[in-house]
Amino acid sequence: MSTFLAYFLGVTVIAPFLVYIALFSFVKWVTGHHKSAVNFAVDGTTPFMIIAVYFLLLSIWEVSLLWVLLLVMCMVGITFSFYKWRREPDFEWRKVWKGFWRINFLLYTIGYVFLFLCGLTLEVFQAVIR
After folding, report:
1. What's the rounded Cα separation, in Å, for the pair 93 and 110?
2. 43 is in which domain, residue-wise?
3. What's the domain count of the chain?
4. pTM passes above 0.90
């Protein structure tokens, strides 16, 4: 059982898009609403995307850059909160949190794709040079 759990967690960390597809399909099947399925899948996939970016950085450069990822998240939160405060002096924290979380999803998805392509390119070049 622990081996299955380890493989399952490994796949979800390595391929967070599978988590997105699974969550989207399940919520779409249960509710029938496309928009709520997308929102739920994005919100549920964000932690997996952050962890996947961390492990891609760790495997490509063999250095833990967790502090950079957390710093980026803090900067996104501060910037988004300031932006919402300037636009709406009486803003709701729930909306700020939801926007912060979805901006992080977008940012880390772009980072995941970039790092995946970067790692793939580096491996191909190293294989050709050897």
Report:
1. 26
2. 2-129
3. 1
4. no
